[in-house]
Every structure is written in C-alpha cells, then in structure tokens.
Amino acid sequence: MAFQPIYVIDGARTPFLKARGGPGPFAASDLAVQAGRALLLRQPFLPEDLDEVIVGCAAPSPDETNIGRVVALRLGCGPKVPGWTVMRNCASGMQALDSAIANIQSGRSSLVLAGGVDALSRAPLLYSDAMVRWFAAMMSMKTAGQKARHFLKLRPAALLTPVIGLLKGLTDPVVGLGMGQTAENIAWRFGIDRAAMDAFASRSHRRVAAAKEAGSLGEIVPLVDGEGKIYAEDDGVRPDSTPAGLAKLKPVFDKPYGRVTAGNSSQVTDGAAFLLLASEAAVEKWRLEPLGRIADTQWAGLDPAQMGLGPVHSATPILQRHGLALNDPDLWEINEAFSAQVQGCIAAWNDEAWCREELGTAPWGRLDEEKLNVDGGAIALGHPVGASGARIVLHLLHALRARGKRRGIATICIGGGQGGAVLVEAAA
Length: 428
Description:
Blueprint lengths: L5 E8 L3 E2 L9 H14 L10 E5 L10 H8 L8 E4 L5 H15 L4 E9 L5 E2 L2 H12 L3 H9 L3 H4 L3 E2 H5 L9 H12 L3 H21 L8 E2 L5 E2 L11 H4 L22 E10 L1 H7 L5 E10 L8 H12 L9 E4 L4 H11 L2 H8 L18 H4 L3 H18 L4 E8 L3 E9 L2
Helix pairs in contact: 1-2, 3-16, 8-13
C-alpha cells in the first residue's frame, strides 16, 4: 500500500525539566495533560472529536500504567475516545506517531492526538529480591514472637540498599550493558576522542541558547504547578558550557578510562510532547492548516551493544526509497542520547567497511553538520525518554518552516538495539 498523506496539524511540548536529586514537581500525566490541553485549545474542534489518543511512555507510574487513557480522560475527550499507551524505549513518542499513522492509513482513525511523556525524576527506588523475600516471610508469620525473631535477622546494610529503577531500566538485560557503555563501544569503534565529544556537547548548549534567544522554540507551552509557579523554559541548558569546562568531568560509565561523561550525555529529564495528526479528509472537514506532513517512517534492529547507531540503520532505507543522498534532506534531527552516539552515526555513514558490512552499500559520505540539530538537542535539553521521539519530529517541522526549507529526517536510537526514523515535509 502506498504511503498516504498524513498531515501534522499542530504540536506542543512542555519545557523539559532536569531531574535534581528527587521527584520533580509534575507527574507524567500532569505534564502530558498540560501540553495536550494547550494544543487542543488552539483547535477548531473539541477534544471529543478526536478518534483516539496515543501516548508513548517508557516509565509510567503504577497508578498510570495505561497513561494514554488517563490523559485522554483528563483532557476532556470523554469516555468514548480510546486512549492507549505504547512503549519502544527511547522512541516511544515516535512509536505513538507511527501507530497513529497506521490507524489513519487503514481508515480506522482520521484525527489523532499522539506523542509521548516521561517523568524520569520520579522513577522508583526498588527493594532488592532479598528484601522482598524478607517481607514475604514476615507476612507469613502468625505470632508476635515469630515476627520479633525474624526482625532481628534484618541486616539493613545488605537488605535495605535500594535498587535504582532508572539505572536498571537503562541497562540492557541481553548484553548486560548500560546505555552509556554502548556509547563507549561506539567511541572506541570509530576513534571518537573525549575532546570531540565535549566540543559537540558544548555546541548543543550554544545552539539551544541561540534558538531560545531567536524565539525558535515556539512549540513550548508553560507548565503551572499546584501553587501557581510557572515553568516557562527548559532548565538544563547551560549557555556558558565550554569544552574546557566539560573536560574537567570524570567518566561515568567506564571508570577511569572511558570518555563518556555526564556532560557529553543527555540529561535525565521530565517532559511531554504532542502532535495532532490528520487525514486529508479531516483537514478538509475542519479546514485545518497543517505544519507539514509525514512522508515516510522506518524501524530497524541492530546489535544492542551498538544501539546508538540505530539512526543509520533506520534512516538509510528511507533515503534509498526516496532516491536521496545523505545531504539531500534540508535538515536532520538525530536525538542526542550521547555525543559519541551522534558522532558515531556521522562516522558510520562515511566508513566504507562499516557500510559494506552493515548496510550492504557503498559509503554515503559525511553528513553536513550545519544541517544537523540546528537548534541543539538532548544533551542541552534533556531526554525524557517517552517524549523525545515526538519532540524531534515536531521541532524539525518548526525548524524547516523557520528557514524556508522543505524536507527533513528525524531519527533516534533506541535502547535494546533499534532505530526509528521519520521523513517529514514542511508546508509551504
């Protein structure tokens, strides 16, 4: 079946708020509802006119397991509008868009709110299995004496040390590597040194700061907490970040000899991003004026130990299908999980042996970095896992329109060894 036009009508995201040592001010559904409400208030239709709401979320809280349904109801869509949740790790928000696309193309839906959210600052602390067994044994005891003797067996140092849920979630269970360790693998494979990583990270901060100054982050809608405090901007951006300053940070994932640090990695962040997707019939019915359209999507799998190269594996088939050279798209968004990961993608496309072995093609050349992440990326903004895939698609459309450009690719690496890519075309 040919790829039918899928229009992006509008979009909005919250400020991305950096995790600062404890639970952030907003639950995931609070973030999603505030982004979605601001977006829907701008539309000529009512929330109950939506066909469905699809939310990508990698780490919903136990009371919001199907966060898509929670958000749909809180947005006032009513009980008849289905709301559901998807999870593809770092690309959950992009998967929500692709799920909406599939339903629109099949004719099941015509107007869909889709995107993603995560409140990573609220990732849980867990008990160890040994501590859970201790609790289970305590619950099975009948007398006070039995419970007292069992309590005396408690060894706090051994049993009460918490398991950090976020770190567990960011470790691949198949290869036993954390995401940062996979970035170290890529740095080693392509000879990416620490100075290059830090320079790239510093550039990300400078570009976001410049975009903010130029008013190029118009997709952001402010957050308001229960006490009336306003959160209007991304709060992890450091305009004064320099390679020299970043060079002082120690490796995090491969101590003491690694190259990946907190400074050249994406930040742990809370945030939400939504897009409104519509069929051609819905555009005509509601007289909508699209930002642009989604022209193609692609998913790919690869070795989990090299997961950061997922953008190369997923974006290349799109280039091939559309007869495009690497620098034919006017702009690129490659989600900045790590400096080494983005730089590894650039190196891979230009590496003859790698392209032959992994893609079965000749090398594609070197990606023009003046077209890449022109307003910065996740190293400066943060990477709320469920939201990032939606954010890069939305911002790519805004960046293309701001520059009078037409076509771009947004692509993201995915924990577990996958990649996702979306080809977009901005409206004139």
